[in-house]
C-alpha cells in the first residue's frame, strides 16, 4: 500500500467524523458558486435593481469566503486535537514528523477537493432552480441557465487556495511535543470544572443590561446603543458559557433532591464537564446562529415596511408643477388617461404651494426656501389620503412642520422668514405625511390660512394628488416622466413627481433580493453551527463509550441510557440555539422601533423555521449517536 493510498483510506475510515465538516464545506462551495453564477450571468447586468443585486451578492461572496476560512480552520484544529492518540500510535510505529505533516496535509486537500467537486456539481444541478428563484425575487425576467467559466474558475481557485492555506497551517496545529502526550491523549482524567463567582456575576450583569438597552431603545437612540449592546452581548455570552453555566450546574449539584434523583446524578455530572469542555464551541454556535437569525429575520420583517407605503406616500401619484407651462397640463392629462386605460378608480386633489425665503444664516441645516401650505389645504390633502386629521386650526405665527417621513424627528424649532423678519413658532410635526421628502426635497411648513394669504413667495407651485386604493396597479405608470418611480425638479425641469406603486415595486424587489441573499448566507451559517455541534459530539464519542460501558456494568438499562443521552444531546444542541433565540428576540425588539406596525409575525415565522430545522437535525444525530454507542455496549 502506497502512502497516498494509506492517506485516502485514513480519510474513508474517519468518514463518520468528517461527514458534517465535508457536507458543510460542500454546501458553502455550492452557495458561493450559485452567487458567482448570478454575478457573471450576461443577462443580469441590466437596471438599477440588478446592479444592486450584483453588489449584494459580491459582498455575500466575501462574507462567506472569510467565514469559510474561519470555519475550516476551526474544524481542522478540532479534528487534529481529537486524533492525537492516533498520531501517537502512528509515530510509535515509525512515522516521522514530516510524514505526519504530509499525511495531514494530503487528508485536508482530499477532503477540500472533494468538497469543491461535490459543491460545484450540486451547484450545476440546482443552478437553474436558484436562477429561477433569484430572478423572481429580484424582479427581472427569468434567467436561462448558463454555465459561466468565470464562475467555475473563481469558485475552484478561491476554495483550492483556501484549503491549501489551511492545510499548510496544520504543521503548526498538530503541535507534537512528546510521544507520550500524543499516545495518552484522551486517557487523562478531566479536571473538575470550576467557575468564578465574579465572572459569573459579570456575565449575568452584561446580558441583563444589554437586554434592557435593546428592549428600551428608540429610533433616536438605536444608533448610539447598537455597538455597546453588541459588545456586551458577545462578552456576556462568552462568560455565560465558560463561567455562569458551570456555576449554575454546580448549584444544581448541591441540591440533593434534584442531583440524587434517578439518573440525574449521571446527567448533571456529565453536563458540567461538557459545558466546560465545549464552552468556546457553544459560544461560537450561539454567535453564528444569532447572526443568521437576525440577518434573515431583519430582512423578512422588511415586508412590514412595505405595508407602511400608504403612510409614507399619501397620494399614489404626486405631481408638483413649479410654473404655468403647458407641458404640465400634458403630463397630468397623460396620467389621467393611464388611470382610465388601466380601469383604476381614482380621485384627484389640487392645492397651491408657496416657496418662502427663510433666514438660514443662524443654522446651516435650515434651507434657503421652504414649501408652505395653508392649514385648510393640509386638512384637504389629509382627508383625501384617508387620514383622520385631528390637529386644531392654527392661529397667529404658530406653524406645523410637515412630516415628510414616518421616521421624522419631532423637534420644536423656530424659523424666521426674510419677509418682514417674521418669526414662526414651530410647535411640532404634523401627525401624518403630507408631502413625502421625494416631492418637496426639503422641509416644509403648515401655517394658518390668514398668514398664508399674507406671505409673498419667491416661487409658487401646484400640487396635484391622484388617490386610489389600488396601489400596486399604479406600478409602471408614466414611465416616460419618472425614473424608477421618482423624478426631482431641476433648473431645466420644472416639476417633481412620484409614483408610489413603482416605488413600492422597486422596494419590494430590493427587499426580496436582500432576503434571497440573506437566506442563503444564513443557511450556510446555520449548517456550519450544526457542524460544530456534530464533530464536537463525535470527538467525545470514544470517551462516552468507555463511560457508558462502565456504567452499564453496574446496571444501567437501555431505557435509562436513551434517557440520559437524549437529555445531554438536547442540552448540547438546544442551549446555544435557545440563547441565540433570546439574543435575537431582544435584537428584534430594538428593530421594532423602526416600524409603526408589528413585526412579531415575521420574526416568529423565521425563528420557528430555524427551530424546526434544528429539531430535525437533532433527531437525526440522536439516532446515529445512540446506534454507535450501542455497538460498543452489546
Shape designation: elongated
Fraction in beta strands: 5-15%
Q: Count the DSSP helices.
A: 21
**Count the strands?**
10
Question: What's the helical proportion of residues?
Answer: 55-70%
- Major β-sheet profile: 10 strands, mixed
Main-sheet strand order equals 5-6-4-7-3-2-8-1-10-9
Q: What's the end-to-end separation, in Å?
A: 33 Å
- Low-confidence parts lasting 5 or more residues at pLDDT below 50? none
Structural class from helices and strands?
Answer: alpha+beta
Average pLDDT value? 78
Q: What value does the Rg take, in angstroms?
A: 32 Å
List the helices and strands and how they pair.
Elements lengths: L2 H11 L1 H25 L8 H35 L1 H9 L4 H42 L10 H26 L4 H5 L13 H19 L6 H33 L1 H4 L4 H14 L1 H28 L2 H4 L4 E5 L4 H16 L5 E11 L11 E6 H10 L13 E6 L10 E3 L6 E11 L3 H4 L3 E4 L1 H6 L4 E9 L18 E2 L7 E5 H40 L1 H12 L5 H34 L8 H34 L1
Parallel strand pairs: 3-7, 4-6
Antiparallel strand pairs: 1-8, 1-10, 2-3, 2-8, 4-7, 5-6, 9-10
Helix pairs in contact: 1-5, 2-3, 2-5, 2-6, 2-18, 3-6, 3-18, 5-6, 5-18, 8-9, 8-20, 9-11, 9-12, 11-20, 12-18, 12-20, 12-21, 18-21, 19-21, 20-21
Amino acid at each position: 500500500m502506497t502512502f497516498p493510498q494509506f492517506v485516502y483510506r485514513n480519510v474513508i475510515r474517519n468518514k463518520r467524523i468528517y461527514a458534517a465538516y465535508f457536507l458543510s464545506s460542500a454546501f458553502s462551495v455550492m452557495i458561493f458558486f450559485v452567487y458567482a453564477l448570478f454575478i457573471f450571468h450576461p443577462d443580469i447586468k441590466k437596471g438599477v435593481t440588478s446592479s444592486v443585486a450584483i453588489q449584494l451578492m459580491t459582498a455575500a461572496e466575501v462574507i462567506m469566503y472569510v467565514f469559510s476560512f474561519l470555519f475550516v480552520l476551526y474544524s481542522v484544529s478540532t479534528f487534529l486535537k481529537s486524533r492525537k492518540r492516533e498520531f501517537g500510535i502512528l509515530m510509535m510505529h515509525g512515522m516521522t514528523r514530516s510524514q505526519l505533516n504530509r499525511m495531514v496535509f494530503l487528508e485536508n486537500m482530499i477532503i477540500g477537493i472533494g468538497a469543491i467537486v461535490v459543491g460545484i456539481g450540486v451547484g450545476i444541478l440546482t443552478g437553474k432552480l436558484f436562477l429561477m428563484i433569484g430572478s423572481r425575487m429580484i424582479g427581472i425576467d427569468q434567467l436561462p441557465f448558463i454555465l459561466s467559466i468565470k464562475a467555475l474558475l473563481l469558485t475552484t481557485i478561491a476554495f483550492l487556495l483556501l484549503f491549501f492555506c489551511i492545510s499548510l497551517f496544520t504543521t503548526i496545529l498538530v503541535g507534537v511535543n512528546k510521544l507520550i502526550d500524543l499516545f495518552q491523549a484522551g486517557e487523562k482524567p478531566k479536571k473538575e470544572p470550576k467557575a468564578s463567582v465574579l465572572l459569573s456575576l459579570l456575565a449575568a450583569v452584561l446580558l441583563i443590561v444589554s437586554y434592557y438597552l435593546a428592549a428600551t431603545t428608540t429610533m433616536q437612540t438605536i444608533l448610539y446603543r447598537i455597538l455597546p449592546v453588541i459588545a456586551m452581548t458577545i462578552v456576556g455570552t462568552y462568560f455565560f458559557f465558560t463561567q455562569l453555566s458551570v456555576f449554575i450546574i454546580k448549584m444544581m449539584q448541591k441540591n440533593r433532591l434534584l442531583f440524587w434523583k434517578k439518573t440525574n446524578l449521571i446527567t448533571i455530572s456529565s453536563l458540567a464537564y461538557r459545558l466546560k469542555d465545549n464552552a468556546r464551541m457553544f459560544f461560537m454556535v450561539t454567535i453564528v446562529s444569532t447572526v443568521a437569525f437576525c440577518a434573515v429575520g431583519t430582512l423578512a420583517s422588511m415586508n412590514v415596511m412595505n405595508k407602511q407605503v400608504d403612510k409614507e406616500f399619501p397620494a399614489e401619484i404626486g405631481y408638483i408643477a413649479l410654473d404655468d407651462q403647458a407641458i404640465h397640463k400634458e403630463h397630468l392629462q397623460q396620467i389621467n388617461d393611464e388611470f382610465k386605460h388601466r380601469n383604476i378608480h381614482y380621485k384627484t386633489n389640487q392645492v397651491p404651494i408657496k416657496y418662502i425665503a427663510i433666514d438660514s444664516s443662524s443654522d446651516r441645516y435650515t434651507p434657503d426656501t421652504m414649501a408652505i401650505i395653508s392649514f385648510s389645504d393640509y386638512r384637504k390633502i389629509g382627508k383625501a389620503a384617508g387620514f383622520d386629521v385631528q390637529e386644531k386650526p392654527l392661529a397667529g405665527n404658530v406653524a406645523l412642520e410637515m412630516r415628510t417621513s414616518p421616521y421624522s424627528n419631532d423637534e420644536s424649532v423656530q424659523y424666521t422668514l426674510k419677509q418682514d423678519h417674521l418669526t414662526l413658532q414651530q410647535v411640532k410635526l404634523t401627525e401624518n405625511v403630507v408631502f413625502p421628502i421625494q416631492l418637496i426635497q426639503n422641509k416644509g411648513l403648515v401655517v394658518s390660512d390668514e398668514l398664508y394669504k399674507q406671505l409673498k413667495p419667491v416661487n409658487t407651485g401646484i400640487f396635484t394628488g391622484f388617490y386610489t386604493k389600488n396601489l400596486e396597479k399604479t406600478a409602471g405608470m408614466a414611465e416616460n416622466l419618472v425614473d424608477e418611480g421618482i423624478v426631482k425638479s431641476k433648473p431645466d425641469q420644472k416639476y417633481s413627481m412620484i409614483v408610489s406603486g413603482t416605488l413600492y415595486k422597486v422596494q419590494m424587489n430590493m427587499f426580496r433580493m436582500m432576503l434571497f441573499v440573506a437566506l442563503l448566507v444564513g443557511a450556510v451559517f446555520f449548517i456550519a453551527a450544526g457542524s460544530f455541534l456534530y464533530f464536537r459530539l463525535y470527538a467525545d464519542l470514544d470517551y462516552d463509550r468507555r463511560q457508558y460501558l462502565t456504567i452499564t456494568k453496574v446496571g444501567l438499562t437501555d431505557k435509562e441510557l436513551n434517557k440520559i443521552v437524549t437529555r445531554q444531546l438536547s442540552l448540547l444542541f438546544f442551549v446555544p440555539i435557545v440563547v441565540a433565540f433570546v439574543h435575537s428576540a431582544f435584537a428584534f425588539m430594538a428593530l421594532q422601533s423602526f416600524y409603526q406596525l408589528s413585526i412579531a409575525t415575521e420574526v416568529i415565522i423565521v425563528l420557528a423555521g430555524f427551530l424546526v430545522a434544528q429539531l430535525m437535525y437533532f433527531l437525526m444525530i440522536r439516532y446515529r449517536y445512540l446506534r454507535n454507542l450501542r455497538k460498543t455496549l452489546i
